[in-house]
Amino acid sequence: VFEKIRPSWFFGFSKIRIRDFEIFMAEPEKALIDAVLLKKISTSEIFYILKENIKDISSKKIVGYILKTQNNSLAKRFGWMLESLGCNYAKKLEKQVYKTMIPLDPTRPISRFKDKKWGVLVNIGDVP
Q1: How far is it, in rounded angstroms, from Cα 86 to Cα 81?
Q2: pLDDT in tens, 43-64
Q3: For the chain, what is the domain count?
């Protein structure tokens, strides 16, 4: 599936050859970030994917890529998710947090549970 993305977000891809074609394939960490940025998968689903695959995904790479996007909402959402899963690298995202609360998952109803550290309204199920 092809998606048009901002030139500044064009990183985290590898060029691979399939038959006679060269294509760019996103690394798993970048695919998760793009899914949230492009609103292709809900944050709840991303959290589940992270939780189930945390040993196979580089949290250091995720944090580096998020900082590269310069998207503060993305930093807040992934910061909460990564910290909830015990990732120490999440601390590097704390500088991106701003006062305004945002829903952790914008596709779900708003919750009253606030995480002031990350500036998110925690509205996803299966909270650790």
Answers
A1: 9
A2: 999 999 999 999 999 999 999 9
A3: 1
